[in-house]
Amino acid sequence: xxxxxxxxxxxxxxxxxxxxxxxxxxxxxxxxxxxxxxxxxxxxxxxxxxxxxxxxxxxxxxxxxxxxxxxxxxxxxxxxxxxxxxxxxxxxxxxxxxxxxxxxxxxxxxxxxxxxxxxxxxxxxxxxxxxxxxxxxxxxxxxxxxxxxxxxxxxxxxxxxxxxxxxxxxxxxxxxxxxxxxxxxxxxxxxxxxxxxxxxxxxxxxxxxxxxxxxxxxxxxxxxxxxxxxxxxxxxxxxxxxxxxxxxxxxxxxxxxxxxxxxxxxxxx
Length: 269
Ligand code: IPD
Hints:
Elements: H1 5-28, E1 37-38, E2 45-46, H2 48-64, E3 69-72, E4 76-78, E5 84-92, H3 94-99, E6 105-112, E7 115-123, E8 128-133, E9 138-140, E10 143-144, E11 157-160, H4 166-179, E12 185-187, H5 192-200, E13 206-209, H6 214-226, E14 230-232, E15 244-247, H7 249-262
Parallel strand pairs: 3-5, 11-12, 11-13
Antiparallel strand pairs: 1-2, 3-4, 5-6, 6-7, 7-8, 8-9, 9-10, 13-15, 14-15
Bound molecules: D-MYO-inositol-1-phosphate.
C-alpha cells in the first residue's frame, strides 16, 4: 500500500473534515457541554465528543489502511506493521470547545518510519483547513501560505499556551512576565495546533509552549515548517515536550536566546 504523502494527506483531510463536522454539530446542539472525564488535573477535560471523534477517526483510517499504527490523545497507541502511523488529536482546544469558543481543531498527521510527512489541522467552527506535505509547501484552504518577515523581537506578535498543572503554569506566567515588555504583544488562543498554523499563515510571528504532546504538535509543526518557520527546542534540543518554538526565521535566534535565559523549558526557576 502506498505511503505517498499526497495520498496520506487526502485520507487525513477527508477524515478530519468528517470528524470536524461531527464535533461541530454536537457542540452547536447544546448550550452547555458536559465534561465526561478529567485527566491530569480537574481542568484537563475530556468531552464525549473527544472520544466519539477519536473513535470515528480510528475507524476511518484503519478501514482504509488496516496495517497502519495510530497514536491518539484519548485512546493511546495502536501498533501497526506498515511503517506508517497516524498522530491524532480529535479536538485540540478542548477547553475552548467546552466553553463554546469557536477556536478548536481536529489535527491529524501521518508519519512514515517516525517522520511526519503529511498533516492537516481543521477548525470546523471557522471552516478553515491547513494542510502540508513534506517538501510540498503549506496551504490554508488550498492557498499557499508563508511566515512573516518580522526581524525585530520588539515588533513580534508571540503566541503561547499554558499547561494544566498549577506549578507549571506559575512558571509559565513568570516567563511571560519577562516577555511582555520586549515583544509587540502576546496571544493565548487555546489550541496549540492552531497556534502553529497561525505562525504558518503570518497571524503570529512566533509561538512557543512547554509541555505539548505529539498529538498537539505533529501536524501543525509540519505546516509551520513548510510555510518557512523554524521549529526548534531550546539549547540545541529538537522540539518536544520540554519546549516547542515555531518562529519566523528573522526573530528565532533572539527569541530562542531569551527563552533559554528565562528557563522556559523548566518547571523550576
Ligand atoms: C491543549 C491546547 C492548549 C495548550 C495545552 C494543550 P487539548 O490541548 O492545545 O492550547 O495550551 O498545552 O494541552 O488538551 O485541548 O487537546
